[in-house]
Amino acid sequence: MAAAGRPLEASETSTRIIREVRNRLLPLLFLLNIVAFLDRINISFAALTMNADLAITSTQFGLLSGIFFWGYSLFEIPSNLLLHKIGARTWIARILVSWGIVAVLTAFVQSATQLYALRFLLGAGEAGFFPGILLYLTYWFPQREQARAIALFMAAVPVSSIIGAPLSGLILDHVHWLAIASWRWLLVLEGLPAIVCGIATFFLLPSRPADANFLSVQEKGWLAAALAHENSKKLSEDDLSVLRTLTRPRVWHLALISFTFQIGGYSILFWMPQAVKALSSVYSNTVIGILVMIPYLAGLMMMILISRSSDRRMERRYHAAVSVLVGGTALILLGTTTSPLLSITLWTFAGMGYLGFHGPFWSLPSDFLSGTAAASGIALITSIGSLGGFVGPYLVGTAAKGQGGIYRGLAIAGVSFFISTTVVLMLPKNVRQK
Prior knowledge:
This protein is mainly alpha-helical. The chain contains 20 helices and no strands. Helix 14 packs antiparallel against helix 15 and helix 14 runs antiparallel to helix 20. Residues 1-9 have low confidence and may be disordered.
């Protein structure tokens, strides 16, 4: 600390304040994202026994995996605008409690039709969470720090699978309490934490820097000034209307990238457990969970390394493009081998490419959007991208019925990654220039 009455040097101030903000906010946001992804993709593990119980076909599973994103997409933009208006603390808490209740109710379905309805409601309940957190991070972190902050938040995606994959396998193999199917217990036990975390969020999460009791008045002033200086270089006041933001070509360019990327991304998330199970008939659910954990461990390390490099160089395009190119190549090559070792290796490269993309890409919207424009623009990008989350799993499920099975569908997902790579490289060197 500087001596009393003497102002801190700018570099010393910025480093200390950003570190304090990161240490106070990101652990809670990280935990919330773990819970979110567990509830979003645990259906992929439940399917290992649920599909037989409910007589669900591969096409039906692809549809029920993706129908989540219809509810998610429909309510994405209004949810993010409400978060910007009402405040992050209250709105994010509401989102968590809503989806937690629906996630638990999903365990009581008796047919595929009921599962369709509850998966749609789960998406509607969770709508706005991811773009809301991205928007929330722009309230606290300058542009140069955002890729790392986003990557630390998004690190919850691989961690949720690193924790959730073996945990889900253990539950499926060993939890049969009260003569209730283990896949039902899986959905209940992994749904309840969202309700608990929603209540905790209401009491622990400050909505804006002005509400942060861990910052001094001087520190709040510095952070507000730094963020205001950046925002002044983005959109003018006339450009801040929701309608103008939603018609900006650059926003739609990023939305197209998100759409093509999520086709491949959610194909990985929803179909990897079943693809790994198909490698050997002797694998237990617990072993499958451990094997699925490997690509996410490697992806977690790659995510952190790429985001740090992207922030240090202030370069986003090539970091995102190379990552998704690697992931697409791995998905296409999966259909060329039946070796468990080589297959897990390719899944590992697919995971590294998928996860490495997030930090640099999700730093791009805040490079030219702020305030209400950021709320609506980020929501549109994630909303369109979420439709890719419907298309990808459904395409894989439909292709799984024909010759080549799951791997033909995964090759289609790999091609979508290649398209995403091309569209990323079409971005200008500096998004703000356009």
